[in-house]
Design goal:
alpha/beta; about 230 residues; globular; Rossmann fold
């Protein structure tokens, strides 16, 4: 599969494509340790956590939060509390943005509408302004602000409407199949899978066949996208 021509909008997931997914992992582990301590249990076994994390990465399906709530806290009913506690720690510290992000967005700026389409907390807006991307982003599709979460089509629809784009002339860039590639593809958007962060370490041939384009990072993505941009906009 290949991306279509006539691109007018490019949307980015945040964790993986823009910031290191370990920022979320660290917040989740702190929240898990807090909840276990309150219940008189020792901190999370990091090796056990990584096993669960890697299983979900490899499968590209299922909720990490639900899995660790069951295996490390003992109940799915604690998932909501875990989410709330994680939110208090979840941040993107300076120096955790990938170095290939700003050059890509600078090359796309003014040629397409650039947007976020991400399950993130509102604090990500401040982080992106701090790291110099604020003036390059046109559409802020952040779940905590908009009120919709991926993989629901509602967040994709909101972002398309804000960008004044149709699915056929928009591209979504993400690092998960279940919350990025599959829902975007189902709506008709072009899809780019960035295989870092929560992407599996060794994607299967079947997984690699799902998106329109697979890249290990964003270094060469401008070369792929610029020739496809709608020059009439």
């Amino acid at each position: 599969m290949t991306l279509r021509t006539g691109v007018r909008a490019v949307f980015f997931d945040v964790g993986g494509p823009i910031y290191d997914d370990e920022n979320y992992v660290k917040a989740l582990l702190r929240a898990l340790d807090d909840m276990r301590m309150v219940r008189g249990n020792p901190p999370v076994d990091r090796a056990q956590f990584r096993r669960i994390y890697n299983e979900i990465r490899d499968r590209q399906g299922g909720s990490l939060r639900t899995a660790v709530a069951v295996e490390l806290l003992g109940s799915t009913e604690l998932r909501a509390e875990l989410h709330d506690r994680t939110r208090t720690y979840w941040a993107h510290p300076e120096g955790t943005m990938y170095s290939d992000v700003a050059p890509l967005m600078a090359k796309l700026h003014g040629k397409v509408t650039i947007g976020l389409l991400a399950n993130q907390e509102a604090s990500v807006v401040d982080a992106l302004h701090r790291d110099g991307l604020g003036q390059l982003i046109d559409v802020w599709g952040v779940s905590a602000i908009v009120g919709h979460e991926k993989p629901s089509s509602s967040l994709f629809g909101w972002a398309l409407n804000e960008a004044g784009a149709e699915p056929w002339n928009a591209v979504h860039v993400g690092n998960r199949l279940d919350t990025d590639v599959r829902p975007a593809k189902a709506l008709g958007l072009g899809t780019v899978w960035v295989t870092r962060g929560e992407a599996p370490e060794r994607p299967t041939p079947g997984q690699l066949a799902e998106p329109d384009l697979v890249v290990p990072d964003l270094t060469t993505l401008a070369d792929e996208l610029l020739p496809l941009i709608d020059k009439t906009r």
